[in-house]
Amino acid sequence: MAKPKAPRRTLDSYTVKHINKTVKVGDCVLMRPSDPGKASYVAKIERIEADGRGSNVKIQVRWYYRPEESIGGRRQFHGSKEVFLSDHYDLQSADTIEGKCTVHSFKSYTKLDAVGNEDFFCRFEYNSSTGAFNPDRVAVYCKCEMPYNPDDLMVQCEGCSDWFHPACINMTAEEAKRLDNFFCENCSSEGQKKLQNSHTASRHLDAKVDTKRRRR
Prior knowledge:
- By secondary structure, the chain is mainly β.
- It is about 5% helix and about 30% strand.
- The chain has two helices and 15 strands.
- The chain is elongated, with a radius of gyration of 22 Å.
């Protein structure tokens, strides 16, 4: 008669020996991809379990998808460090953890002074079956009516307070950085675009403007 399997037990935390890091439920981690040529997968730990001897440790994860992994693919407004919290759960060996990372809220990410390799941000939840996003709409800016990409430089109109990509107002990024004042076409007192040496951007979320962040 086959010997019954010992029940698995839940762990509060686990030290991944090959990286010398302790992980716990709720942590975000980088997972080894099946294809060595791909970037590490990003996941959130939902549960840690082991066999009766405390070995053969498995983690239940909830995957974050990168834009290019979604049904619609990467779009212009997606940031380089943007990920979507999916409804896709999986059970993986804890030995496939490559390191810990941080998935910030969109607001917190835009306030970072510098972005490291382990920093990501999430502003959408993603349904991996239907390709639907929650929320299904966000604020848009500029003539192009695109959501804010924190990697892109934008300038603010002092009249209407909307934000604009330099390319959308026939400017180079270098010209935009030298501005002191800017009025869009609609707000210009002469009824045309008026550039008067302006300020670009603050790093605050209510000031939707930024240059590409320094990488650590």
